[in-house]
Specification:
single chain, alpha+beta, Rossmann fold, four-stranded mixed beta sheet, 13 helices, elongated
């Protein structure tokens, strides 16, 4: 795609201007600052993608023509037409004001703008126009192939890597593996996973095994320190003899305690206790039967009260949330009111007096002419244009803030209304909860009244008679036991002595078992330590092989990419201290100097042309390359590209020439 002709009409201050390159030749455009060199580049991007070179839309790029006082000249058609070859196509856009008359009004007012689109002089709709251009190339490709610094500076490094990786083509993994014997088990290490995924797994394993290797020796020492020396020579024989002696003493004690009819008396006492419990059970059954209905009422009242209480708590929480939102909205309104007041009180910068006569103009950024030189620079017009823009921005800001304030106040009103309704619901529920609580207390009182209407079974004659019999039998038992007490105490003392000896032996047995368990644990930990060291070695070997492959692959990819460029070399990988490579980068260099760090403007332009030429061959496409500040480079290599070079010169009119 080569530019054959571009003509401008009332576009960004150029009332009428045309450039021709009949065979798609490269052009040089020279002239003083502010004559419109950048405007030509803006016109080219505008006619293609409805934006200027900085990506601004027609409403913001200043298409309209103004008079000497800075006022817009209305009712003009602002037109850009561009003809291209390879493919042959002519594109034209006409931007103009739209004037309408409101009902009842005597005059028209500016209501907006329209854009008419033409392809090969045929009027088309916007979508058809954009579709025609999209078939040639995308906007992103156009910027890559027309702006020398765009790909190296503005495209994200990750996107640059993707483009360059595609240019490198498929990388033969087997070829890389066969080139280095240490990579022979690379595929086996990956085991079907990606290198990045396997690297994460091995790194995590390495961390785990290192922790185990650090911690296991301490755990072995803990078990060694816990080992206890135990004399086990008499452990089994002494224990058997003591156990036999204890059994004989316990049999003797049982005989002593059961003597004198104590057992028979205890059986009778247990029978009387059973009769007493039967009386209690029957009395409880009568009480339960009489109060069953009342208990159901208590349970129902309780459930109703709990349900209402839960709903009240939920509604009260809603009130708290609404109040919190109201508080936030009030703060938002206060902030908007403060911003409106601040915006309303904002004043423009005062007009300098006199306007500076050297250095840079504070309004347009142009270099001011030296005193005595002729200049078409209009200080008054520049200040009026600044003042008009300031007032328009101020009005737009206030309108935007007031609209937000109205919306916030409307939302606040709705919130307050919702809060009122919610508080009414809570008041109603609060009353209902009080009523439920009262009902619950009444039902409990009724239940207690029913239970209290029955006499305590322990006060009945039948229960008292049984208790008297049981007390008499207990007295007889105590009397018998008093007479046998000395004999029983003697036997119990002997049993206690034997039990203490058995307890000491059991402690020895326990320590023997614990020592055995500790030794088993020590052996187990030693095995785990050995396994951890072997696993660590495997993980580190896998990481080493993956890193070595990454380095080899990086060298292959970088080599394939850089062979496609004449001047530029790409730094797509960087060696790391651990032997791996950092692939989170993609930077252009020339003779080892990074594009964005130390490379002068001339070499940056030439490098950009090299990039455009190579990428154009990759895409199979070409577009006019716009080179601004071309005076920085003495001998420009344009390859086979159509270059439109912009030069700053002393010419008072734009000068267009075919480049040789």
């Amino acid at each position: 795609m080569k530019l054959q002709k571009i003509s401008l009409k009332n576009f960004k201050g150029l009332r009428s201007f045309e450039i021709q390159a009949p065979k798609g030749e490269s052009l040089s455009i020279s002239g003083r600052n502010a004559l419109g060199k950048t405007t030509i580049a803006d016109a080219l991007t505008y006619v293609l993608f409805d934006k200027d070179t900085q990506g601004r839309s027609p409403q913001n790029l200043g298409i309209k023509t103004v008079d000497k006082s800075g006022e817009v000249i209305h009712n003009l058609e602002h037109e850009v037409e561009a003809s291209f070859i390879e493919p042959d196509i002519t594109l034209r856009k006409v931007y103009q004001e739209k004037w309408t008359r409101s009902r009842g009004a005597s005059s028209k007012h500016l209501s907006g703008h329209t854009t008419d689109y033409y392809v090969d002089d045929e009027p088309v709709k916007k979508k058809e126009y954009e579709s025609e251009i999209a078939e040639i190339m995308s906007e992103e490709q156009f910027r890559i192939l027309t702006v020398p610094h765009y790909f190296a500076e503005q495209v994200h490094w990750s996107q640059r890597r993707k483009v360059l990786a595609k240019m490198a083509g498929e990388i033969d993994m087997d070829e890389i593996i066969e080139s280095d014997p240490e990579l022979s088990d690379y595929k086996e290490i990956l085991d079907g996973k990606s290198a990045e995924s396997r690297k994460k797994i091995l790194t995590e394993q390495r961390k785990k095994y290192l922790e185990q290797i650090d911690n296991i020796p301490d755990r072995i020492d803990e078990n060694v320190m816990a080992m206890v020396e135990v004399d086990v020579s008499d452990l089994n024989d002494d224990a058997d003899e003591l156990e036999q002696e204890k059994r004989e003493l316990e049999e003797e004690l049982a005989k002593a305690r059961s003597g004198g009819g104590v057992s028979d008396l205890q059986v009778k006492m247990e029978e009387i206790e059973s009769q007493k419990q039967s009386l209690v059970k029957k009395q409880n059954e009568k009480v339960d039967k009489a109060s069953d209905k009342v208990r159901k009422e208590v349970r129902k009242a309780r459930e109703e009260m709990d349900s209402l209480t839960d709903k009240l708590s939920s509604d009260c929480s809603k009130i708290d949330r609404i109040k919190s939102l109201i508080s936030e909205k009030n703060l938002e309104i206060e902030s908007l009111e403060s911003e409106i007041e601040s915006a309303t009180n904002r004043e423009p910068d005062p007009k300098p007096n006199p306007v500076c006569q050297s250095g840079t103009c504070p309004y347009c950024g142009q270099d001011m002419p030296d005193k005595g030189d002729e200049s078409d620079h209009d200080d008054e017009a520049e200040y009026e244009e600044y003042l008009a823009k300031f007032n328009a921005d101020k009005a737009q800001t206030i309108k935007y803030l007031r609209n937000n304030l109205s919306q916030a106040e409307a939302v606040l009103k709705e919130m307050r209304s919702e809060l009122t309704e919610q508080e009414k619901d809570c008041d109603y529920l609060d009353r209902k909860v009080s009523e439920a609580e009262k009902k619950h207390e009444q039902s409990k009182a009724k239940r207690d009244e029913v239970a209290s209407s029955f006499d305590d079974v322990k006060n009945t004659d039948e229960y008292k008679a049984l208790q008297a019999k049981q007390d008499a039998l207990e007295g007889k038992v105590q009397q018998i036991r008093t007479n046998k007490k000395d004999h029983v105490d003697s036997i119990q003392e002997k049993i206690s002595e034997v039990s203490e000896k058995l307890s000491a032996l059991e402690e020895k047995r326990f320590e023997v078992r614990k020592n055995k368990e500790r030794q088993e644990r020590i052996n187990e930990l030693k095995g785990e330590l050995k396994t951890a060291r072997e696993k660590l070695e495997d993980a580190e070997h896998g990481l080493y092989v993956i890193q070595r492959f990454d380095v080899a692959q990086a060298e292959v990819i970088t080599g394939k990419v850089n062979k496609k460029f004449d001047l530029v070399e790409w730094k797509m990988f960087e060696p790391q201290i651990n032997g791996g490579v950092n692939d989170q980068m993609c930077e252009a260099t020339v003779n080892g100097v990074a594009y964005g760090d130390g490379l002068n403007n001339a070499m940056r332009i030439q490098a950009g042309l090299d990039i455009i030429n190579t990428l154009g061959s990759h895409y199979g496409k070409q577009a006019p390359v716009v080179v601004d500040n071309a005076e920085a480079i003495n001998d420009m290599n344009t390859y086979d590209l159509q270059v439109i070079a912009m030069y700053v010169s002393t010419d008072k009119q734009l000068k267009v020439e075919v480049m040789k």
